[in-house]
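User: I'm writing a tutorial on reading structure tokens. Could you give me a worked example: one chain, its sequence, then its tokens, then a sentence or two explaining what the tokens reveal?
Assistant: Sure. Here is the example chain.
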Amino acid sequence: MTSVSPATRDALAGISGGRAEILEETLDLHESVVGSSGLDGRTLGLVQIAALIALDAPPAAYARQVANAIEWGASADDMLGVLRAVAPHVGAPRAVAAAPELMLALGLTLPESSQ
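And here are its predicted structure tokens:
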């Protein structure tokens, strides 16, 4: 097994847990993406959520991106609209998998049948 420094272990644990400050520090994405995309923050946040749905991203990615999208002016209704818009293109399984991740990232409780 490869030796891993405590700093590397902590950074990987922070990224895998969706800790915003570790993601920004380690990946240095936040400001550079916002500035270089040419999109307003709300639109960028929604596009990034669409990408997460298409990629079948892990829960930590949704937690981070939903928080960004809300900070940039997107609403839960906007995110539902994105899910509906991409569903025909990514397929029902990915759309169904994304719905509970969006719910949890929005602080909603999953329905009994989903748990």
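What the tokens reveal: The chain has one domain: 6-114. The CA atoms of residues 45 and 69 lie 4 Å apart.
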